[in-house]
Design a protein that fits this description.
Length: 602
């Protein structure tokens, strides 16, 4: 590597204070600057930060957007969630590969281009979508792919490309009380300071606000537990790692309501006595980074962040950390591991992050929508919030609607709204199934469309994926299971092995090469994986298969071969070994983990 490159690497290290806790951020910066993190650079970083070389190697290998080899000047990732597939992403990929004369997953011979699939980029309402050097392009057709390839082959810098290619639309289809509310920066914060942190917390409690990531844990309880936990320092984290395929409502809030989100974080700091907050922004949303930094700078200038906020003896500030492509980082303890410069592997629980979070200190972690609503409660009061919703699910919910609909986008409805109401509003026709809450959520069929979206019925982090009768639902399940198998962190044996067993099984079923016996045995394996996995990823990875097997069994049976498949392994013996290994690796792994799933960014 040239001296100039090492000068830039040293600058990146200095920008981050050569702090080992910022290892992931440092590596993201080097990846963007150099196009990869080869062995010589990993060794240099290890010595510069005085961290084990194995840790640097492990982090680079763990995150999808970090590479141990130089990928080139143009790094392209085509979204490969099921919605983008339905809209033609494979044709886009084929065109790019042909026009660029490249091979998927490998740097081009001249070292200038790298192209591969990634999972969901949070742009399902505007697909097919792709990322080029972390910049988002939407509505990409094969013709647009040819234009992209022409500019890349000519070596044209991205800044010279047509600006409208990079536009992401953020117009809600149905605006409820949150999206229609006129947020005034500082007004809610002023009101909370006047009533005092204890009284404001009671207002949040009276509103009955529950986490909007899917699990629905009561926000006031979480804040109170963290406030009362002993610790030298308290922290606030906003989980903007919106990685559940089919979810993009936080993307809209980050674009439209960043002020409200940051104000909600500040209010949490006021309540629990924290002076430091982190926004963990998923790597796919890196293109939002600069405008979020600008919003923070403006809020500091307006005395809404920093020292002596609004002239009071109250200090609080926010730092943005980027993710690097890891779905499991949506689990809050895994996210905290990433914030600390490590692989995003979920921690054993208890203890919980509210009492033992960032650096082992009491930490409040909520998602974007939750923080926006805490700010609006401060501004408008609990009575405003309670004007809609149900007894156990007060307020409204933002839904990310995509798939076979005439009008994809963001829809806000009061809790208690039926699935059928949403389908009619978005222009769905001949609907065969709806996936509520993303792949880790619930698949329902037409006889259940009268069910309500709320915590007491269909809980969801926001994803609402629609499939009409022309879709092969087994291919949908196959896409979901491949996603989970790829995203498993590998920490516990049940998930690491179970997701791979399911991947092989669904591939054989879809290909018509499996028999009834294998179908029965993989159902058993799926239930064991669900019961024995360490965190929500493994516990919910089986849901696409088990839900559709329960509701759409004839579609499975129609694909089975006439001859029973005879497995080449003893399933009971395999599961017995899995159980033993799991308990050896983690004494808690044999206990079903209650609480939020991996997508529950509460």
């Amino acid at each position: 590597m040239h001296a100039m490159n090492y000068q830039r690497i040293n600058q990146i290290l200095d920008d981050h204070g050569r702090n080992p806790l910022r290892l992931v951020q440092i590596l993201i910066g080097i990846q963007a600057e150099c196009g990869g993190i080869p062995a010589s650079v990993r060794d240099y970083i290890s010595k510069a930060l005085a961290v084990p070389l194995a840790q640097v190697h492990g982090v680079v290998a763990f995150y999808h957007f970090l590479s141990p080899e130089i990928q080139g000047q143009y790094r392209i990732y085509v979204a490969d969630n099921i919605i983008d597939r339905m809209h033609g992403n494979q044709e886009v990929m084929a065109t790019l590969l042909q026009e660029l004369q490249a091979e998927r997953g490998k740097p081009r011979a001249d070292g200038q281009v790298f192209i591969d699939y990634t999972s969901c980029t949070g742009l399902c309402d505007q697909g097919p979508a792709l990322l080029i050097n972390s910049r988002a392009l939407t509505h990409v057709t094969p013709d647009r792919a040819k234009e992209i390839a022409e500019r890349i082959n000519a070596g044209e810098p991205l800044n010279n490309w047509p600006s409208h290619w990079f536009q992401v639309e953020e117009s809600p289809r149905v605006a409820g009380p949150v999206l229609a509310s006129q947020f005034e920066p500082g007004r809610g914060l002023q009101a909370a300071l006047e009533m005092g942190p204890a009284q404001y917390l009671k207002e949040v409690e009276r509103a009955g606000l529950r986490g909007r990531g899917g699990a629905g844990f009561r926000t006031a309880i979480k804040w109170r537990v963290s406030r009362d936990a002993p610790g030298k320092t308290h922290y606030v984290i906003c989980n903007a790692d919106e990685g559940e395929p089919g979810t993009f409502k936080d993307r809209a809030l980050l674009t439209r309501d960043a002020d409200a989100m940051f104000e909600g974080m500040t209010l949490a700091g006021l309540v629990i006595g924290a002076e430091k907050g982190f926004l963990y922004l998923r790597g796919e949303y890196t293109y939002l980074y600069s405008q979020l930094v600008a919003t923070l700078a403006r809020r500091r200038a307006e005395h809404l962040l920093g020292k002596n906020i609004l002239g009071r003896e109250f200090n609080f500030d926010v730092e943005i950390h980027l993710g690097a492509g890891a779905y499991v980082a949506g689990e809050e303890s895994a996210l905290i591991e990433s914030l600390e410069g490590k692989c995003a592997v979920p921690r054993p629980r208890p203890p919980f992050t509210a009492t033992h979070g960032y650096l082992g200190q009491p930490t409040v972690c909520n998602n974007v929508e939750t923080f926006v609503k805490t700010a609006l409660i401060a501004q408008n009061g609990a009575d405003w919030f309670l004007e809609c919703g149900t007894r156990y699910s007060p307020g409204s919910k933002l839904l990310s609607v995509s798939g076979d609909v005439a009008r994809p986008g963001i829809y806000e409805y009061p809790f208690g709204t039926s699935v059928q109401t949403v389908l009619e509003a978005c222009g769905a026709r001949e609907t065969q199934a709806v996936q509520i809450g993303g792949p880790s959520g619930t698949c329902i069929t037409p006889n259940e469309f009268d069910r309500a979206i709320c915590y007491e019925d269909l809980s969801t982090g926001g994803s609402f994926m629609v499939f009409n009768r022309s879709r092969d639902m087994l291919s949908v399940v196959q896409n979901f299971i491949h996603f989970f198998a790829d995203e498993s962190c590998g920490f516990c044996t049940p998930c690491r092995v179970g997701t791979q067993l399911m991947r092989r099984a669904i591939d054989k079923i879809v290909a018509g090469k499996a028999g009834a016996r294998e179908l029965k045995e993989i159902e058993h394996a799926a239930k064991c994986t669900r019961a024995m996995s360490h965190c929500g990823l493994g516990q919910t990875a089986t849901k696409p298969f088990l839900d559709t097997l329960d509701r759409l069994r004839p579609q499975y049976e129609a694909r089975l071969s006439n001859l029973d498949f005879v497995p080449n392994f003893d399933l009971d013996q395999s599961l017995s070994k899995t159980r033993a290994l799991s308990q050896r690796d983690d004494p808690h792994a044999h206990l079903p983990q209650t609480g939020e799933a991996c997508d529950a960014r509460i």
